[in-house]
Amino acid sequence: MVVRGVIESFRGTIDNLVVEVSKQSKQINELRKAMIVMEKENVQRDRKLDQKLASLDESQSHCNTSLNETRQMVNEISTEMNNVQSQLGLVGNIEQHVFKCKGTFVGHDGPIWSMASSGDLLFSGSSDHTIKIWDTLANFTCLKTLQGHEGMVLALCVSNGVLYSSASDNKICVWDIKSYRLLESFSAHSNPVCTLAANDTYVFSGSLRVINVWDVATFQPVHTIDNLNHWVRAMVIKKNKLYAGIYQAIKIWDVTTFETERIIDIKGGSVYSMVCTDSWLICGTYEKGIQMHSLDNPRESHVLTGHTGTVYCLGFYTSAGHTRLFSGANDRTIKVWNVDRKIPSQTLDRHQGSVCCLVVSKGKIFSGAMDSTIKVWQ
After folding, report:
1. Rounded CA separation 349/125 (Å)
2. Considering only CA atoms, which of 324, 327, 321, 320 is closest in space to residue 338?
3. Fewer beta carbons under 10 A from the terminal one: N or C of the chain?
4. What are phi and psi of 136, to 5 degrees?
């Protein structure tokens, strides 16, 4: 009886296993059918993908053909424009040159307010009360640090082998460029000396409402131009004329008689920077503008716009009869201008602070800024 019960139990288990195997076989068959369907779908997808890739290849081929045709058209148009410019005598007016940062001078412990150059030497004045002399020809290294001021060095000027410096300590220092020796130091004003200009005979220093004139041989005062309306922050000497920027005006004097020759009205607040080309007197103002005034036609003037801060400094150079203007501003940028067309051609923005001073020398542009660095552009 016991054996028969065990056999019946095994039969029941076997019957259950047969039923389970049957179910598993059905599921396996269903999975096989699903896999066959998926394989068919994958084949269809692969075909569609191949068709799309072929279509993309064809589209790319068409794009390349169109691009080549467009380039050919541009070249033809450029050639035609050059022919027209040649016929109109405008060749060179639209020349393009991209200036790039070639290096950085690091050494000052404060903002750089002033710069000047002589040959391969660059001079920089800073809030750290020093003047540094840099080698611009070989490796951009500092050759010497000059100490003589007790305030921010606000202006530098080179004339006849002599470096003149002025500062917020109200003094002017005179340095020999070859020996780096301090030749003279004297109190020049009762307020900070913001700007300097020099010729073979005189040194002119600008401060609050006054310009003092000094003999270059004796460093004694020769003349005073006073009763000006504000700070004198920019001066230029050109062809025996002294140009000085004040509030809303530029005044022009004869440098031999000190007589006033002309006053140019300026819009945009105080004049902070100024350069003089053979044809143009150009100034930068507190209210972000650059104004150009013709030296030949008093009625002709232009306004250049683009900066978003006070235009602290200007520089220029002329090549093949065409002039480029460089402007540095409180917006931390330097703009390159095509003077002939009165438009900007490039913006240089590597400084991390306001651009306070510019020097153009031997095809290089040097810019000093509130970030305590000098950038070299070429």
Report:
1. 22
2. 324
3. N
4. -100, -5
* Euclidean distance between CA atoms 156 and 130, whole angstroms: 12
Neighbours of 358 (CB within 10 A): 22
Question: Alpha-carbon distance 317 to 294, whole Å?
Answer: 17
- CA distances, 266 to each of 34, 197, 316, 339, 346 (Å): 86, 21, 21, 19, 26
Please name the amino acid found at residue 329: A
- β-strand 355-361 against 343-348: which pairing, if any? unpaired
Phi and psi (nearest 5°) for 159?
-155, 125
Write the single-letter amino acid at 140.
F
Lowest mean pLDDT among 23-32, 83-92, 312-321, 322-331: 83-92
Q: How many CB atoms lie within 10 A of CB 355?
A: 31
Q: In the chain, count H helices and then E strands.
A: 1, 26
DSSP codes of every residue in 211-258: EEEEETTT--EEEEE---SSB--EEEEETTEEEEEEEEEEEEEETTT-
Whole-number Å distance between alpha carbons of 172 and 184? 8
Has residue 1 got a pLDDT over 60? no
Instruction: Report the distance separating Cα 341 and Cα 251, nearest Å.
Output: 27
* Residue 156 buriedness (CB in 10 A; 0-12 / 13-18 / 19+): buried
User: Would you tell me how many other CB atoms lie within 10 Å of the CB of residue 233?
Assistant: 23
Whole-angstrom distance between the N-terminal and C-terminal Cα of the chain?
111
**Could you read off the pLDDT of 102-135 as tens digits, one per residue?**
999 999 999 999 999 999 999 999 999 999 999 9
Cα–Cα–Cα angle for 247, 252, 253, rounded to 5 degrees: 130
Asked if residues 21 and 15 have their Cβ atoms less than 8 Å apart, the reply is: no
Burial level of 171, CB count in 10 A (0-12/13-18/19+)?
buried
Quick one: pLDDT band at residue 146, thresholds 50, 70, 90? very high
Contact between 325 and 341 (Cβ < 8 Å)? no
Angle at 291 between CA 321 and CA 202, to 5 degrees: 75
